Each structure stands twice: as structure tokens, then as C-alpha cells.
């Protein structure tokens, strides 16, 4: 590849090569949002970057440069080893920083001089974001969506995963958001994704979709945790076909137990239930918290489903093109694909 390459050129090159991304920004910048799959090998860590910034603000430009160079120099052996290991997985590496400036250029020049197959992303992460903003709506709305609706715990996410395993296109909105969508949807998960990270993952998921091709997704509110579904995508989903997944209460309780209850997370569950006091009688929530701490989690799940969640979401049942009673995600996925095949033959 060229020494400096645009993101559009990278997309074309990825059809024939395994290309890896290296984010040389600080860990804090990287954790907030990055190019999906990028590995963080920072030129400056968070503390050093902050110190360099203060020196610059105070007009101590040369001191700032020297401070940064000294820290980076101490990390070079580890950096080089890390790059070498990455090249065992990829044909070439693309390095980027915020704007394609000093940080990416310095490490790129060094690695290039050592003969490593590296390129630098033109314009850095800022240019990447510009590309995503420019193309996201077009990429996301070329699909014909079939959306799975259903009450909490009906196994919609598991069915999506089975559809994917069987070769169907899916859009896992909750996975892209790293949040399950409900008020308690972050339990047991790492930090929810930022809006920028969410949009990047949506774009990544859409790569390979063809115009008018069926993509399965799960019905969500416009907001999922901290992020908002782009309006164009939300409208495209609403305009598509709607499948309602019906499942017995006992299976739904078991599914939610698998999703939310982990070893030794009773305290997290109990604390999270406190947020429901704005919507449910406080004494009842206190009882739920006591039951969770005593191990009666399934009683709490069933009560919340019947008295709180089901009445809020049951309206989707009347807005469907097909209703499927699901006792098993694999079998339900097979039935959905069979319906799709028959529909295409008509």
C-alpha cells in the first residue's frame, strides 16, 4: 500500500489483504471511540499526553516535544515487539492518530525505516469519522429489514445469533451498543459504547450488504442505553417486515436468568433494581432487592415481567407480519429462514 492512504482506499484494499489498524492515540482516546478492531499501541500514555499538553499551553513547546520523545523512546522496544506480533496476523498495518499528525507520522517513519509493511491513515481518526458520517446512512438503508419483536426474554438475541450462524445477515443493535436496551440493560456488561463507537460498529456491520438484501435485526427503542439509533436506520427498520416471537413465561425467565445472573453479582443486580423506584412502589422494589440477595432471583424476574415489562411492551403483538412460538432458538431460526425462502419463491 501507499505510505499514506485514505480510508476509502483501505476498504478497497481489504478485499485482497488482511489489514490491521493500530491506534497510536492515548488509551483514554482509544477507549472512547476508535476504528473497530484497532489495537492501541500509544505513542504517549494518558499521563504523559496530559503533561505534554500542559507544557504546550504554557508556551514550553520544545520542552513538551522533548518530554514526549523521552517517554516514547523508553517504550520503543515494547512497541516494536507488539508490531511484530501483529504482523503475524495481518499482511499490513495502518497507523493512525487523531488527525494524521505528529504521533502517527513519527512512529510510521521509524517502522518504515525498519522495513515493516506499514501505512499511515490520511487525516487520522478525524478523517475516518468524516467518512463514516458521509456514508453511514446510505450503507444502513440499503437493506430490507426483518425485525424480531417480542416480550423481554423471548430469546430474540439468541435467534439472531442462530440466524447469523446459518449464514443470514443480521444487525445486532444491542451488541453494537453494548447494552441490552432496558433500564437494567447494562448489568454484567462492560462500559456501554459511545455514540461514535456505536456508529462505527453499525457501519462495520453493514459492509457486505447488497441493495435490497434481507437483514434480520431486533426491535429496539430509538435509544439503547447511551446511544441513539440513526433516524434513517430507525425508519428503515420500521418500514420493514415485523416478526413477533412468542415464548412461554418459564422459558423467558430462564433466558433472562442466563443473560443477567452471573456468579456473585447479586449486589450489582440489587443495586440496579433501585432505579425502578421511580416507576414501581418503593416497598415492592425493596422486597425485590431482598429476594435477590437471598437467592430468589427467578421470583423477582417473573414478577417484573408480569407486572412491569409485559404491560409496557405487549403492544408489539398486534403489529406483526408473522407470529412464531419459540421454544428453541435453533428451531425458530430454521423456521424463519424457511419462511424467507418460501416468500422469495412466490
TrEMBL record:
Gene3D superfamilies membership: P-loop containing nucleotide triphosphate hydrolases (3.40.50.300), Rhodanese-like domain (3.40.250.10)
InterPro entries: AAA_SelU (IPR058840), P-loop_NTPase (IPR027417), Rhodanese-like_dom (IPR001763), Rhodanese-like_dom_sf (IPR036873), SelU (IPR017582)
SMART domains named among the record's database cross-references: RHOD
Keyword hit for DNA repair: no
Keywords on record: Selenium
PANTHER family associated with the record: TRNA 2-SELENOURIDINE SYNTHASE (PTHR30401)
PROSITE patterns: RHODANESE_3 (PS50206)
Keyword Hydrolase (UniProt): no
Highest taxon of source: Bacteria
Protein name: tRNA 2-selenouridine synthase
GO annotation terms (biological process): tRNA wobble uridine modification
Annotated GO MF terms: tRNA 2-selenouridine synthase activity
Amino acid at each position: 500500500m501507499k505510505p499514506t492512504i485514505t480510508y476509502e482506499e483501505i476498504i478497497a484494499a481489504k478485499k485482497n489483504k488482511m489489514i490491521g489498524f493500530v491506534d497510536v492515540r492515548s488509551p483514554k482516546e482509544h477507549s472512547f471511540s476508535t476504528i473497530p478492531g484497532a489495537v492501541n499501541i500509544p505513542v504517549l500514555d494518558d499521563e504523559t499526553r496530559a503533561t505534554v499538553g500542559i507544557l504546550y499551553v504554557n508556551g514550553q513547546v520544545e520542552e513538551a516535544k522533548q518530554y514526549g520523545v523521552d517517554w516514547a523512546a523508553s517504550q520503543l522496544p515494547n512497541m516494536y515487539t507488539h508490531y511484530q506480533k501483529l504482523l503475524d496476523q495481518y499482511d499490513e498495518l495502518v497507523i493512525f492518530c487523531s488527525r494524521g499528525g505528529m504521533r502517527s507520522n513519527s512512529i510510521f517513519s521509524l517502522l518504515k525505516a525498519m522495513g515493516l509493511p506499514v501505512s499511515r491513515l490520511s487525516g487520522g481518526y478525524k478523517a475516518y469519522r468524516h467518512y463514516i458520517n458521509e456514508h453511514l446512512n446510505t450503507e444502513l438503508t440499503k437493506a430490507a429489514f426483518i425485525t424480531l419483536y417480542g416480550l423481554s426474554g423471548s430469546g430474540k438475541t439468541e435467534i439472531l445469533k442462530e440466524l447469523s450462524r446459518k449464514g443470514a445477515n443480521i444487525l445486532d443493535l444491542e451488541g453494537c451498543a453494548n447494552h441490552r436496551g432496558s433500564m437494567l440493560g447494562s448489568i454484567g456488561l462492560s462500559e456501554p459504547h459511545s455514540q461514535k463507537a456505536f456508529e462505527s460498529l453499525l457501519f462495520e456491520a453493514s459492509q457486505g450488504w447488497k441493495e435490497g438484501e434481507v437483514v434480520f435485526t431486533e426491535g429496539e427503542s430509538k435509544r439503547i442505553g447511551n446511544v441513539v439509533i440513526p433516524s434513517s436506520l430507525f425508519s428503515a427498520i420500521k418500514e420493514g417486515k415485523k416478526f413477533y416471537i412468542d415464548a412461554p413465561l418459564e422459558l423467558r425467565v430462564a433466558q433472562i436468568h442466563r443473560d443477567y445472573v452471573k456468579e456473585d453479582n447479586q449486589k450489582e443486580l440489587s443495586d440496579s433494581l433501585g432505579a425502578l423506584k421511580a416507576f414501581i412502589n418503593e416497598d415492592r422494589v425493596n422486597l425485590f432487592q431482598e429476594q435477590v440477595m437471598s437467592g430468589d432471583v427467578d421470583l423477582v424476574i417473573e414478577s417484573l415481567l408480569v407486572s412491569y415489562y409485559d404491560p409496557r411492551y405487549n403492544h408489539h403483538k398486534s403489529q406483526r407480519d408473522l407470529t412464531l412460538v419459540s421454544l428453541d432458538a435453533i428451531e425458530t431460526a430454521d423456521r424463519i429462514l424457511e419462511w424467507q425462502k418460501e416468500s422469495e419463491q412466490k
